[in-house]
Acyl-CoA thioesterase
Amino acid sequence: MTDQARSAESEIPGKPTSASRTALSHIMTAVDTNLYGTGHGGVIMKLVDDAAGAVAGRHSGGPAVTASMDEMVFLEPVRIGDLVHVYAQCNWTGRTSMEIGVRVMAERWNESTPAQQVGSAYLVFAAVDAEGRTRPVPPVLPESAMDERRIQEAQIRRTHRLARRRAIKELRESRAAEGIRD
Ligand SMILES: CC(C)(COP(=O)(O)OP(=O)(O)OC[C@H]1O[C@@H](n2cnc3c(N)ncnc32)[C@H](O)[C@@H]1OP(=O)(O)O)[C@@H](O)C(=O)NCCC(=O)NCCS
């Protein structure tokens, strides 16, 4: 059974993507710069994690922790004064985890042009209870063809994440079995 089918069989009622979709905005200021005077990637990553965390909390109806962040892409530099908008939505749900997709847009402080995409990322959050134990999440219900595509792409990323983790674990175990210590 696929993860999505498993999620869909959950007894928890599903929630549509629109129920937890979130936007977060921030003006880049002098404290947000890197050594070169443009926006610091870590500041953008925190905004991405904050927005994704809000979506994960709203979708799962409680606390959720970041399990992984991958494919963080910086497409264009953000400049000081730019207004940064971070859009996040739940792309996919497993049993206790959710993939949140995030798009980062910048409105240039000195240009009246449309906002430009400057980055994107995919994060996996695990829903947890008060003791930090994982708990089941509602299946996400797609509302558009784009949502359907995002579920399918998230499932591909999930398959690759699990395969990569398993391959690295097996490699380490086989090296340890050969007595290699590193
Ligand atoms: C994330 C965490 C709860 C997972 O705990 P665990 O004991 O490994 O639990 P599980 O193996 O049951 O994994 C729970 C779910 O998360 C997924 N998951 C766990 N680690 C993952 C990873 N690195 N990448 C992608 N998914 C992951 C699992 O596939 C599972 O999903 P599913 O239930 O939908 O199939 C645990 O590792 C943790 O608490 N990490 C710290 C999180 C944190 O503090 N984040 C903030 C950083 S300061």
Notes: The pocket of coenzyme A is lined by residues 65-68, 94-97, 124, 126, 128, 132, 134, 161 (CB under 6 Å). The longest strand covers residues 116-127.
